[in-house]
Amino acid sequence: MTLRALIVDHESESRKSIRSVLNREPDLEIVDVCVEGKSAMEAVERHRPDVMFVDVDAPGFNGFSLLQSGPGSNLPKIVVTTNTKDYALRAIEAQALDYLLKPVSADRLHRSVTKAREQLTVERNSFSLPSAPPAAVPAADRLAFKSKGVIKFALIQDIQWVEAQGNYVKVFVHGEAHLIRETMGRIEQRLSIASMIRIHRSRLVNLRFVREIQALTGNQQSLVVMLDGTQFPLSRGCRANVSHLIR
């Protein structure tokens, strides 16, 4: 699947950096590069990109307004880019695909592209099977799983956290735990949204339910504190996943 990408950024060096990394992505086509709002909106109408890398500080353009314009097949996935962490929570609440703090690293940019490709693949496969019953083709924003002989559906944005349990994963939704036969790698792909991040090799958390991240000093381990008071360790290997929030 060829991914059609649009870059909107008013900073020359940032545009060059993002474009350089995206040019190395297989099956990705950069349809346009814009520096301000008017040309960006014209490019959206003209090219119908699959994913947009949007600098929220670009003159005359508000990526959040585009996110809030409502669902639709023509709405691209939005990856927010900015020089400040001030927009992080807003991007999560607006359900942006991802949030990147400048200067954007090649690894983080690659992960955003992977997220976009995975979500679009799920959505396009759903649209290609119109005759299938709804339960057979879950919407991209929902997780389907069997619990006590019943197939249940949970909004991905409502999942609080996920933890590994041997050959299973335990998914916590609205205070209830559901055991699903799935690997952490597979469940991470299925829960590919901006607010769902890995904080440990055996745990994912939804930033929508995080109260605070305690960046402890010395030999003490950093802690992720959930809204209900539950605390989880933030492993050293996963600190980069939240670095844009705690700098």
What does this structure look like?
The strands form four sheets. Strands 2-1-3-4-5 form a five-stranded parallel beta sheet, with helices on both faces. A five-stranded antiparallel beta sheet has the order 10-9-8-12-11, with helices on one face. The protein has a three-stranded antiparallel beta sheet with strand order 13-14-15, with no helix packed on it. Residues 126-139 have low confidence and may be disordered. It is globular and about 50 Å long. It is 27% helix and 33% strand. It has 247 residues and is an alpha/beta fold. The protein has two domains: 3-127, Response regulator (Rossmann fold, 3-Layer(aba) Sandwich); 141-246, LytTr DNA-binding domain (OB fold (Dihydrolipoamide Acetyltransferase, E2P)).
The total of helices stands at: 7
Written as H for each helix and E for each strand, in order along the chain, the element string is EHEHEHEHEHEEEEEHEEEEEH
At the third CATH level, what is the topology name of the largest domain? Rossmann fold
Computed over alpha carbons, the radius of gyration is: 19 Å
- In spatial order, strands of the major sheet run 2-1-3-4-5
Helix vs. strand class: alpha/beta
Largest sheet: 5 strands, parallel
Blueprint (SSEs and pairs):
Layout: E1 3-8, H1 12-22, E2 28-34, H2 37-47, E3 51-55, H3 63-67, E4 77-82, H4 88-93, E5 98-101, H5 106-127, E6 142-147, E7 150-155, E8 159-165, E9 168-173, E10 176-180, H6 184-190, E11 196-200, E12 203-206, E13 210-214, E14 222-226, E15 231-234, H7 243-246
